[in-house]
Each structure stands twice: as structure tokens, then as C-alpha cells.
């Protein structure tokens, strides 16, 4: 009897779960409500931002809800640059204050190569569109608004001019949004104005590479490093010294040629030998190393002036001679 009751009980539970499953399949999917207001307030186009002939489009938008949907604006909306029915580029607004709803900015950037490949011509007859994400479920068609007239096509002809123009625009937006959001986005002093940490967070995520394009609006600037070419200098003086003995009896270029060596290296080897023999002779004659060191130090500039000793080697030997003289006269222990 108990087993029979338990069997009926299992059937009842299975029936309840099956009913719940069928009912859940029959329920309509949750749809995002259309915004209470939606507009593109302005579009500003700049070029020569990071390189010549790149293009940056900045969109000032507003999307208003009395009660925000579960999805933030990054998930729910797309900004698109359109050439008729062809999309040239798109971006999702950055969800920062109030899930990104209300007023904000977004940007679309093309490198010079991308603009050429996609056929994005400067001052083209384009449309900027703000639309609901079509991959989400809306009550009807995804909401959409667009403008076909842009507020600015920058006349800048250089990156420096663009930096100044765009920097002023960023600070203008920061001042505007600070009043709208009651968030401290900009700070000023007698030295100028720049973004706060909140402003830096918002604009670096809303405008691609803005810290590289307009470093002056950031408290800690970031710029592309410049690697100048290393200057090369011809050894004019050293070459002139090598020519001192040319055409004289001391000119050993013919012998050096037979030995298969550059003349300066051939004479340098010979002169170092002369210096060694001279120092040895002075040391043996005087019975002291000090006169030998002085002799070596004196022979170095003489070898350079007659063109037998390479200038670079002479400089190195000069340093060694200074050390040797200092050691012999000041640090060597007396033998008496």
C-alpha cells in the first residue's frame, strides 16, 4: 500500500515539473523598452590626430529612460557611421555614469590606411546613426535616430593643430557633463585646465587614443616616444693628424701597403714598440721606473702630432699614463 502511494506521488511530482517546463516555454521573452528620449546632439569630425589623414568622429548623444533597462548602454546601443545603407564603422558608447544613459559621447576612429581601404572620404555625405542593438529583443523594431549634417569638419592641417582643437573640445565636454552628472570631471588652476581621474577614466574609454592625441588635457601626459637618429661625426681632426707625415721621409704608407695594413695601424704598432724600447732603456739607465713612466707619458702626444699614433689609442694610453704616474709618484711604497 505504501509503495503504491509513493509511486503515485512520484507521478504527481513529475507532472508538476512538466507543467512548469511547458509554461516557461510559452512565456514571452522579456523585451527592452524604447527610451523616453533619444537624440544625436552633435557630430564633430577631426583628422591628422595620430597620423596624417586619419579620421576621428566624436558623437554627442542623449538616451533617456525614466527607469533604466537591465542592460547598460554599452550592451543596448550602437553608434554607426553610414554611407547610405553601408556601415563604415561602429562603436558602443561607454557605460560610466548612470549605466551610460542620459548624455554622453562616443567615437569612431579610422587610421589613414583604414580610411583608404574602406573608402571613408573626408567631408563625405555620411549619416551618423544611434540605434538599439539588433541582437537584443525590443518591443518593436530597435529604436533609432540619425543625423546627416555634421557640426564640424575640422580644417586642421597638422597634428599639432588637431591636438589644440580636440583638447579644447574634450575640456568643453568635461565641463558640460560635470554639470549634467554632478561628477568632478575637470579641474582648473592658474596654469590651465585638465581632466580629473574620473574625467580621464571616462574620456580614455570614450575616445580612442585620446591620451596620445591630446596629452595636455591629462594631469600625467602620455606621448609617443621620439627616437632621433644618432648624429655621426667624421673624425676630421684625427684624419688631419694622420696626414702630417704624408710625403715626408716618415711616411710609411708604402711599407704598410706591402704588409697589408692601414698606414695608421702599421705606424701605431711601430711607435708602441719604440715607446716600449725607450721606456726600458731609460729604466735600465736610471735604475728607477719613475723616469720610464714620464718618458712614456711624454712620447704619447709626440706620436699623435707626427701622425704615427692613432688618436683614439693615444687618448686611452694617455689615461693609462696618468694612472701610472699617479701610482708611481704617490702610491708606490718606497724601497728605501
Q: Which architecture of the largest domain does the CATH hierarchy give at level 2?
A: Sandwich
How are strands sequenced across the largest beta sheet? 5-2-1-8
Q: How many DSSP E strands?
A: 10
**CATH H level, superfamily name of the largest domain:** C2 domain
Would you state the CATH class of the largest domain?
Mainly Beta
Characterise this structure.
The chain is an alpha+beta fold and 336 residues long. The protein folds into two domains: 37-217, Immunoglobulin-like (Sandwich), CATH 2.60.40; 236-331, no CATH class. Helices cover 44% and strands 19% of the residues. It has helices at residues 2-26, 73-76, 112-118, 159-181, 197-206, 210-213, 236-242, 253-259, 263-286, 289-305, 311-331; strands at 37-47, 55-64, 77-83, 86-91, 102-110, 127-132, 144-147, 152-153, 186-189, 192-195. The chain has a four-stranded mixed sheet with strand order 5-2-1-8. Strands 4-3-6-7 form a four-stranded antiparallel sheet. A hairpin with a 2-residue loop joins strand 9 (186-189) and strand 10 (192-195). It starts with a helix and ends in a 5-residue tail after the last helix. Residues 1-6 and 11-29 have low confidence and may be disordered.
Brief digest:
With 336 residues, the protein is of the alpha+beta class. Helix content is 44%, strand content 19%.
Essential attributes:
disordered N terminus; elongated; 336 residues; four-stranded antiparallel β-sheet; 11 helices; alpha+beta; Immunoglobulin-like
List the helices and strands and how they pair.
Elements: H1 2-26, E1 37-47, E2 55-64, H2 73-76, E3 77-83, E4 86-91, E5 102-110, H3 112-118, E6 127-132, E7 144-147, E8 152-153, H4 159-181, E9 186-189, E10 192-195, H5 197-206, H6 210-213, H7 236-242, H8 253-259, H9 263-286, H10 289-305, H11 311-331
Parallel strand pairs: 1-8
Antiparallel strand pairs: 1-2, 2-5, 3-4, 3-6, 6-7, 9-10
Helix pairs in contact: 8-9, 9-10, 10-11
